Amino acid sequence: MTANIFKSLYEAPVGRMIIISDGESIIEIDHLNHDEPITSNSDELCRLAAKQLDEYFAGARIEFDLPLKAIKGTEFQKAAWQALTTIPYGETISYGEQAKRMNKPTAVRAVGGANGKNPFSIVVPCHRVIGANGTLTGYTGGMNRKEWLLEFEHSILEKANK
Questions:
Q1: Could you give the residue numbers annotated as active site?
Q2: pLDDT for 117-137, tens place per residue?
Q3: Can you tell me the distance from the alpha carbon of 32 to that of 145, in angstroms, rounded to the nearest whole number?
């Protein structure tokens, strides 16, 4: 394991984000919910992630192709994050549906907790998981960001279907 950590600030339409690489994999992409001084020392992987996020926000990318490595999290959390990657662009599922897809139908609350610790915002789309009654619930980046991301994806799909 390399000891180098590379960081890059990313100015997204939904606010500032941070991209972190260990030189071999992306280890975190997260929303910044407060202003804090961060020194950028980006590497090729941080720049690749930023390029793919640019493409996503331009409506030109619906799937990401990045080497991701979760360096934190339990096996259950990692399974929950993997399940998130199966939700198609512009679609939503409930926490209960995600739990069923993981063959853990009674683990709805645990799934919600795992999603809240997702280290790869947007790229691993926890914003596509909503409450069973169709309401928007929980997003560590803030509900306004979750709503924006879902509306954005729907608008891109609508344009593509015209």
A1: 126
A2: 999 999 999 999 998 888 888
A3: 11
> What Å distances lie between residue 95 and 58, 66, 88, 154, CA to CA?
28, 25, 15, 20
Alpha-carbon distance values, 131 to 80, 111, 117, 135 (Å): 16, 12, 17, 5
Which pLDDT tens digit goes with each residue over 55-104?
999 999 999 999 999 999 999 999 999 999 999 999 999 999 999 999 99
β-sheet bridge partners, residue 26: 21, 68
The upper half-sphere exposure of residue 159, i.e. CA atoms within 13 Å in the direction of its Cβ, equals 9
Q: What are the tokens at 120? A: 């790869």
pLDDT at 40: 82
Rounded distance, CA 62 to CA 55, Å? 9
19-28, 73-82, 115-124, 153-162: segment of lowest average pLDDT: 153-162
Report which of 21, 114, 30, 129 is spatially closest to residue 66, judged by C-alpha positions.
21
26-31, strands of its sheet edge to edge: 6-12, 15-21, 26-31
Residue in this structure with the two tokens 């609350």, named with its chain if needed? 109
Rounded distance between C-alpha atoms, residue 16 and residue 106, angstroms = 35
**DSSP secondary structure code for residue 9 in this structure:** E
